[in-house]
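Worked example (supplementary).
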Amino acid sequence: MTAPRLLDVAAAAGVSRATASRVLAGTPRNVDPELARRVEDAARELGYRTNHSARALRTGTTGTVGVVVPSLANPYFVQLADAIAQQVRAAGGQLVVSDAANSVEIEAEQIETLLGGRVDGLVVVPVSAAASGPAVRAAAKRAPLVLFDRWASGSGTVAVTLDNAAAMRLLLDHLDTLGRHRIALVAADQASSSGAERLAAFTEARGTGAATVLLPSFTTDAGRTAARRIAAQRNEIDAVVCGADVLAVGLVSTLQRSAVSVPGEIAVTGFDDTEILELLDPPITSIRHPLTAMAERTLTLLQAPARERAESVERFAPQLVVRASTDANA
Amino acid sequence: MTAPRLLDVAAAAGVSRATASRVLAGTPRNVDPELARRVEDAARELGYRTNHSARALRTGTTGTVGVVVPSLANPYFVQLADAIAQQVRAAGGQLVVSDAANSVEIEAEQIETLLGGRVDGLVVVPVSAAASGPAVRAAAKRAPLVLFDRWASGSGTVAVTLDNAAAMRLLLDHLDTLGRHRIALVAADQASSSGAERLAAFTEARGTGAATVLLPSFTTDAGRTAARRIAAQRNEIDAVVCGADVLAVGLVSTLQRSAVSVPGEIAVTGFDDTEILELLDPPITSIRHPLTAMAERTLTLLQAPARERAESVERFAPQLVVRASTDANA
DNA sequence: GCTCCTCGGGAGATCGATTTCCCACACTCT
DNA sequence: AGAGTGTGGGAAATCGATCTCCCGAGGAGC
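After joint prediction of all chains, the assembly is encoded as:
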């Protein structure tokens, strides 16, 4: 029982393959309604489904967008992929998600694979601002590619990101307003553009002398490590800004177990407004990305002529979400 | 600047397309090492990448596995997809993940699309035990398909799942051992086979009279609703088994805000050992699925001859993970 | 009544890689 | 030396859908 082909449908309807194709693919060409009906009936009858490889080969287009994220284990990236997915689906396309396992090499490999005629365009959340550049640049020459949430230097293409500096200022102003002036930064992953920008904005606002805990990795475990260092300095610090939600989650739960009250003694903020934050006790203040708008813009750029994707960074305005981890009355 | 084709590589190396193909696709045919070297050099030089659509069309095979999950917004399903992804990658394949948006119709649509020659096989976590059957059955006739984590009746194919009844018994025994005998079940989503099995196992163990809170949806918000009902019955209940982690998360945080101590007054368990559980205070006792073994078995079945995928359900042994939400000393 | 257009529809080329033949050459064995 | 054998490599068919031509019929205009 082999799958029915267009030829079979055409034969059953008593027309040529060309006509059957015109009806089923909806080519802008008038076909006698009677014939169209016969073709459609035959197709339904036989359970015909157009062969994707054949169509893609002939038309040179797949109707599929590829997304490469650093890791699907991090809910933040899942959220990003999901935002893109909704836009793609709304446009009637398919989505392929690849996981780069936080490695520039695997990232390059995934990009390569997807480019072999599997996708019409690529959305990449690059692992590293410095090291992801070359692979992205090479890929951007072969297919439309837009960076999302992070940029990579020398990428040769446009990036749709959050305005991280503005976001950092929002958080610092918020804490200042609450009378918290002795603020520490807990960050990881300076390899990513967003990590670097957040750190830079913090240093610029607070000076190089400000307390900063840099962690090797971007996990809740790292957040717990940070908690121990913060707890040790509890007398000199009254607020902590975390460069990522996962860090904040680990930090808050560990601080509380060490009997450091949040926000009583130390206020804490996250950074990406992941869904978990709301569920913790206390819920954690964070920065919300305008993901829908960002994803929409990304798809627009993907479909635009190449010249609109010249290397540049577009920054979207962040939104502060105040919760009880900074302001108990929130 | 069009992409280089096999023809270009062959010309550059001074051989025929056939030979170039034999070298690059690694056909089990001897080729003069000197020619092979020339072909490989030419391919590298030109930046050649085999066109996936063309290869797929000719060979009828894509090297890609599709996964359809009910929703990517639920971290549990992301975890499942990730387990499959690792196995597929280990086998040198590609993965396409689709989201069914918790709808049987969209699920059927996604399956249809993937079957149009995009994938060699399909792994489906069905939305509904009853309603997903027909679409799955039709798909299973056209391509290898294995159900994962849940089964669907009349699916005509094999399902790799957890032994939910055994898992429920593990939880109940654990609570009994701790002296908690007045146990309530908080569940949602009886449409899924796992939801139904968990409910059935609970009822069988505790009788139909046992307290049960059935929720309309499968979200943390639903868990909060449940918390209010449980709090109202706090005098008759000393433990709650949740049919899913997301419910437990919402339940615990809301109970605590209502000044009901966990586990002091009421012990709580989750069910899928999602990563968040560990981070909450208290961390929540749950059931861990042997996901790696399950994913491995799934891939094996996918590649096996059709007769090994006769409709049946394979059940894997659950593992109890005790945390402080049931046993403060854990 | 005749020519010119329009419009629907079919034959065949095409996308790029794989694979089936089959041929040419070199080498061995009698 | 001639026949037999084996091996590497090329020409051409093939996968299935689309798209470019081109043809025939019917209608409009003179």
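Two points are worth noting when inspecting this output. The longest helix of chain B spans residues 75-90. Chain B has a mean pLDDT of 91.
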